[in-house]
Design goal:
Strand content: 25-35%
Mean pLDDT: 89
Order of helices and strands: HEEEHEEHHHEEEEEEEEE
Helix content: 10-25%
Number of helices: 5
Low-confidence stretches: none
Structural class: alpha+beta
Number of strands: 14
Radius of gyration: 23 Å
Shape: elongated
Length: 255
Amino acid sequence: MVGGPLQRLIVPSRSFPRVLPLQVLRIGRVALVGLPFELTVETGRRIGEAVRAETGLERAVVTSVANDYAGYCATPEEYALQHYEGAHTLYGPATQPFLSWHVARLAAETVRAGVVADLAPVRRFDLRRRRYLPAPTGRAVPRRVAGPATFTDATALTDPCWEVEWIDVAPGDLRWHEPLARVESADGDGPWRIAADDQGCDLEVVHRGPDEAAGPGAHRYAVRWWGPSFRAGRRHRVVLVPNGGRTEVASDPFD
């Protein structure tokens, strides 16, 4: 498994773990699997299916945060979305398939031998690092909001959200570890106050890709405000905060 782009922001390279504990207990026709990750639901299902297929047991119960902690484990598809769970899968997009293979092999050995103990006497880490974030381009692009805010109502599967798109420089020219956007609210003609920012879970920033129609080197982004609050007479706006030398820009008010 390869360290992901957030590795060096969490722990120094020399202490980044590359040996992690996996545990399988067999109780009759059931395998209890303990893993040192916070697992998404689909990750747990795939690991359980791999264990059942390899062992022939009737059931596999997969649990999170057992014996150690190494962040999240998302599927390759979830990793590609780079939502919270995928972005915190520190070992990269192949974590779940890699883990499924090793857990299934351990479970099969446990069923076959009864007891398996394969422990490293010493744990030392010395990993090479690779930059996964895009390199800066240095191309100047005027920063601007790309249209009015749009609202998407709640469905059976998703929460409601407001969305504002904007045009900006390439991803490598933004500082993603610093704030990018916030939502402000105002009652009537009162002052603007911060309602939500991208340092929590309410705001999502999405890179939509290059947008040459907006100018050479331009890229399109979107801010999504999930689960917004409403109140009569209250206005809102999205503010793109200064970032990487970019100036502050505010959207038109919406309510």
